[in-house]
Amino acid sequence: MTTQLDAATEGLDSTGSRATRVLGVLAIFGLAALALFGLVLSPPDASQGEVVRILYVHVPSATFAYIGCFLTTIGSAMFLWRGSSWWELVAYASAEIATVFTAIVLVTGMIWGRPTWGVYWVWDARLTSTSMLLLLLLGYLAVRRLPADHDVRTKRAAIIGLLLVPNVIIVRQSVQWWRTLHQKPTLLANGVGAKIEGLMLFSLFVGFIAIGLVFAWLLIHRFRLAWLEDQLDDAGLDAAIAERRAEGDVS
């Protein structure tokens, strides 16, 4: 059994590579630049004051949480259509990263809401739909990790993954469809023009770059780890079957 496990992971003692190390360094520099522009160089907002700085993390995190959900839905659809294990692992890795970013969105939103609305939480349409998105992601991950047959749990998880994009659309459009406390889109007001400009707008773009680099770095590593986990599971199953057959031959 040990031999088969070693063969499955031969030459793979890390999920890192030269490319991911470069990406990681860029992500660190991006986060440093975000801290500099977001906390030091950018001015406070005329109406929100210093609390506007939370948006430099909140808005990019929400965007990349949506991207992670889209990747999970696409990967799930491709897996159910063609049975591609590669796409299934993309969906799985994306769901984990999207879960982390959605949690960051909720936490930063609550921190922003306390001085703005006077409370950390209200059952606002945007907040409620985002919470439902987080629960759906957690449900996907829970089903994906059930102690059941691999094919059964991956197919059931993929079906849940198909529901993520419709939920993202509801989250994204909630401020347009219902009366909410949540402000309208930060970059566009009624579809035309920017609501923030100058150094504040540049700081937000730095946030998108920094958070995007972190998202990409995490996604690549999580995908590689998921692939290694699958290889170990397959090798362990093959070894167990071979051992059982050997016991039968001896008897």
Describe this structure in words.
The protein is mainly alpha-helical. The protein has a domain of 171 residues. Helices cover 76% and strands 0% of the residues. It contains 8 helices and no strands. The longest helix is centred in the last third of the chain and has 53 residues. It is globular. The protein starts with a helix and ends with a helix. The N terminus is likely disordered.
Mean pLDDT: 83
Strand content: under 5%
* Number of alpha- plus pi-helical segments: 8
Low-confidence stretches: 1-5, 189-194, 236-242
Q: What is the succession of H and E elements? A: HHHHHHHH
End-to-end gap: 20 Å
> What's the main sheet like?
none
Number of strands: 0
Radius of gyration: 22 Å
Give the fraction of residues assigned to helices.
over 70%
Shape: globular
Helices and strands: which structural class?
A: mainly alpha
